[in-house]
Amino acid sequence: MSKVQNNKAWWLVLPVFLLVAFSAIIPMMTVVNYSVQDIFDQSSRYFVGADWFRQVLQDPRLHDSLLRQFIYSGCVLLIEIPLGIAIALTMPTKGRWSSLCLIVMTIPLLIPFNVVGTIWQIFGRGDIGLLGWILNDVLGISYNYAANASDAWVTVLVIDVWHWTSLVALLCYSGLRAIPDVYYQAARIDRASNWAVFRHIQLPKMKSVLLIAVMLRFMDSFMIYTEPFVLTGGGPGNSTTFLSQTLTTMALGQFDLGPAAAFSLVYFLIILLVSWVFYTAMTHSEKN
Amino acid sequence: MNKREKVSFKKLIPLWIYLLFLLVPIYWLVNMSFKTNTEILGGLTLFPRDFTLANYKVIFTDESWYSGYINSLYYVCLNMVISLSVALPAAYAFSRYRFLGDKHLFFWLLTNRMAPPAVFLLPFFQLYSSIGLFDTHIAVALAHCLFNVPLAVWILEGFMSGVPKEIDETAYIDGYSFPKFFGKIFIPLIGSGIGVTAFFCFMFSWVELLLARTLTSVNAKPIAAVMTRTVSASGIDWGVLAAAGVLTILPGMLVIWFVRNHVVKGFALGRV
Amino acid sequence: MAEIRLQQLAHSYSAHPSGPEDYAIREMTHIWEQGGAYALLGPSGCGKSTLLNIISGLLSPSEGKVMFDETVVNDMSPEERNIAQVFQFPVVYDTMTVYDNLAFPLRNQGMPEAKVKIKVHEIADVLDLQPLLKKKAKGLTADEKQKVSMGRGLVRDDVSAILFDEPLTVIDPHLKWKLRRKLKQIHEQFNITMVYVTHDQLEASTFADKIAVMYGGQIVQFGTPRELFEKPHHTFVGYFIGSPGMNLIEVKPEVGGVGFGGIHLPLSDALQQRLAATQWSTLKVGIRPEFVHVWDGPVDDAMQAEVTYVEDLGTYKILTLNLAGQLLKVRMQEDKPVPQGQAWISFPAQWLMLYADEFLLEAATQPVPAGEVPHE
């Protein structure tokens, strides 16, 4: 659509700007403020410049957390994106089954994060959980997410897949629905194989929604807090402690405001950078 | 009927497996919510041997429990109303006009959706305490606006761009003032978009725990925070915990039912 | 393949059709002969796209048979029938170059790459796509994309027929005639059966050797453009073909012929007999504006009509006449004198058509021409 140049449009945008600025800029200023000060209590603060940043960027605890986080987000994307696409390809497009399918798939997305954690906490326990019982007693595989680090990792990943794959699938589904029938008809006439149809028709047309999916899943998995916390509390040891938890512990638990603030800024910057890359890619593909 | 149009049954099996995968843990939770704690800890049963509604009774009769739900519903609805009211004019501006800094503003809005809540915990805590809004519903509603408003603007803009500008121009020629045009003509046209946006605002606000817990203590305590109460000296009250969990899923299911026809388009942020 | 035969074909989109209204295609038996250039002409919603999809195999008919020579192909897919179809909206594979687009059907067949190259260049030559071969299909204009779509249909050796579903709809008018000429060229060069669906009579007449006019799910006439013009079998054909369309007047039978509003129109004996032997509920006569004879002055047997309007269109004129309350259009050459006020006209018997229940009544009992639907 051709837009009209008119700076008075700012009046329409003002409420949003003020509201979000209130929620974003003021707290951000506080964070920046803390990140350059050493705070003992309300009355004694000392300006320390970039000290906290230096400390934070060299803190091995944070490096570990960061590494863990990247691996986690990487796994999440590697599993959920192809799985979501595959499911979207098999979803029925009309009739009662279609509505039912959509509803069932949307349910996990609407469960409060702590309840998600609770569901799997119960489900996975050896004593009261169906999964725990099946794995331990029926199949003989020893499984304990509370004591075993790799069990914990796998469980946390499975929770995320359970929780969020539907989002990817629904996004891809909406992309697929937008493809006009003639493309499929032409492909049949051209004797294209199913794989060729996927590669040359479906995948290209899903590009824009896939970018949204990848961006959202990366962002949200990078910020994950509640689900792993409820399940394992970050353990055993540190094995499932991701960035948000480390930060929260530092800020609210230990009240290390200075380092926490510096870390927050670094955290935020990483996400900003990645999201800028994705956003640019998205708007480029939209323009085409 | 064209026999080639029937979907092959084999193709649907993976889908069924996936749907089952989604439903089984929830079934287990529901199952547990109808059992007594003794039965839960006694052994594994696929259906409650002693079916009981006692767990639900606890939640419906104990004020500290059901107030959690009421609080959560209250701030979520508040958030929906606020987010929609400010997002609608803004989305219209982004859809119809170019103005100074518009692209940068849009991107900045999106970055807030990507802000880690953990980063804002402490600042929010101090901010809302200092203005005396700590432990109020409005505080949580406003805090959630941080990520819901950008999303609302994004989705609504997508839907609005699907309405041709000619409709606006025709309305002005017909003598409509801007508010009248917006209310009587434009909003009905994007009805499904508004529904979808409301759905997403509900969804992200309802499920968010971190900020909601940080900004509240007693009066506006959300259900998520209440649920941690089940841990006591005598062990975890699994039955009540399960029942509480089931009750948090229900509002979500209700909302999905209402927007089921449009939810697909909304997920693509209106851009499909 | 010698012919495509539609045997007692009918199609309804509902599972249990209760009456004729439920049918998109009413029962028809029709033959398309090999190598012909045919047009399927009709207004929107008459069933032409449905019929095309049934021929190509994208749709399976609910009743009747589709036969290629002696083989029933109802359940065969388009690829099995070796049919190529070009759609209304250009379908190109965006991610591939024009070359790869054209090569796509051949590569799917497993053709060796050397042969693919030859064929692609051959078709690119015919369609003037040579300069675009290396370009990505995404950036092409609408008519270039449509040419690529056509190219994909032509590039296959074994294609038995090419079906076009209003392919020039999205093309700019000044490019349409170019593409039409191209299509005719291709037909002459390759001698493949081509069926071209359109709602534009001009397109149909320039492209096709024979036109099948569709109306209400039936093929109401199948003939050369000239046959359609001179002897419309159905009032719709009379109305749809020609500019302006045929004049149609409701009449009642009288002694010696038919009449309306005090005007008597004589009919031949044979035709009168035919009329008497036929059951009908509506009776009309039709005569094309081109065939109404205008006398220079009053003549004994001529009918007198009032000239109400004259349109001068350069090489010809259109007169609107009022004949006993009925409005008629007459088309006159530019050099003929235009009557003022009153005109004396007659309807030459060979051009005056009689329609009972919209279908043409003819005097001689001739065998029904091949491909025509039997009168109900």
UniProtKB/TrEMBL annotation, chain A:
Membrane topology, as annotated: Multi-pass membrane protein
Source species, domain of life: Bacteria
Keywords noted in UniProt: Membrane, Transmembrane, Transmembrane helix, Transport
Family: Belongs to the binding-protein-dependent transport system permease family.
Name listed for the protein in its UniProt record: ABC transporter permease
Transmembrane annotation, as ranges: 12-36, 70-91, 97-116, 152-173, 208-226, 260-279
Keyword Transport found: yes
GO CC aspect terms: plasma membrane
Keyword flag Metal-binding: no
UniProtKB/TrEMBL annotation, chain C:
Listed CDD domains: ABC_Carb_Solutes_like (cd03259)
Domain called ABC transporter: residue spans: 4-241
SUPFAM superfamilies, per database record: MOP-like (SSF50331), P-loop containing nucleoside triphosphate hydrolases (SSF52540)
Matches recorded under Gene3D superfamilies: 2.40.50.100, Nucleic acid-binding proteins, P-loop containing nucleotide triphosphate hydrolases
GO molecular function per UniProt: ABC-type ferric iron transporter activity; ATP binding; ATP hydrolysis activity
Record's keyword terms, sorted: ATP-binding, Cell membrane, Membrane, Nucleotide-binding, Transport
UniProt feature coiled coil, ranges: none
Protein name: ABC transporter ATP-binding protein
PROSITE patterns in UniProt: ABC_TRANSPORTER_2 (PS50893)
A Pfam family hit: OB_MalK
Any one cellular-component term (Gene Ontology): ATP-binding cassette (ABC) transporter complex, substrate-binding subunit-containing
InterPro entries reported in the protein's UniProt record: AAA+_ATPase (IPR003593), ABC_transporter-like_ATP-bd (IPR003439), ABC_transpr_FbpC (IPR015853), ABC_transpr_MalK/UgpC-like (IPR047641), Mo/tungstate-bd_C_term_dom (IPR008995), NA-bd_OB-fold (IPR012340), OB_MalK-like (IPR040582), P-loop_NTPase (IPR027417)
Organism: Pseudomonas lutea
Keyword Phosphoprotein: no
